[in-house]
Amino acid sequence: MHALILFAHGARDARWSLTLGELARRVATRRPETLVLQAFLEFQPPDLSSTLAEAVARGARRIELAPVFWASGGHVAADLPPLLERFRAAHPGVELTVLPVISELPGMLDFLAAAYTQATPRS
Fold first, then answer.
1. What does pTM read for this prediction?
2. 8 Å CB contact between 55 and 3
3. Whole-angstrom Cα distance, residue 69 to residue 91?
4. CA 6 to CA 40: how far, in whole Å?
5. Cα–Cα dist 108/123, whole Å
6. How far is the C-alpha of 66 from the C-alpha of 23, rounded, in Å?
7. Which end of the chain has less neighbouring CB within 10 Å, N or C?
8. What does the pLDDT average to over 11-24?
9. What is the mean pLDDT of the chain?
10. CA 85/CA 82 separation, integer angstroms
11. SS3 letters across the chain
12. Of 11-20, 37-46, 59-68, 92-101, which gets the smallest average pLDDT?
């Protein structure tokens, strides 16, 4: 089984995660054969360790982690690697791949440039 975990920062206000939930639903609709889960770095459950454990418990042997962060800043570059190292040490038979952050996804910057250009009136 294959799993995709959408991994975001989290916030004290639970409404913050509604968009991530909607993204998860849309991905799951497009990829019904994939187990799509959510995880948060802080402030909201579930945390990444719990979500990785859930994916394995539900039979995932290949997991892709999508960091839903704008760029590879401190959280992605510094906080994420130790979490993944612990998981890999405990589950050497599970293939774990980290996907690009939002700004590094193919076409994302052009998409946003076009969307913002269309959304703003010309002077």
1. 0.92
2. yes
3. 25
4. 8
5. 25
6. 11
7. C
8. 93
9. 94
10. 5
11. CEEEEEEECCCCCHHHHHHHHHHHHHHHHHCCCEEEEEEECCCCCCEHHHHHHHHHHCCCCEEEEEECCCCCCHHHHHHHHHHHHHHHHHCCCCEEEECCCHHHCCCHHHHHHHHHHHHCCCC
12. 11-20
Place of tokens 């799993």: 3
Token pair 């996804």: residue: 105
Q: Which amino acid appears at position 96 of this protein? A: L
Confidence of residue 53 (pLDDT cuts 50, 70, 90): very high
Average pLDDT, integer, range 13-26: 94
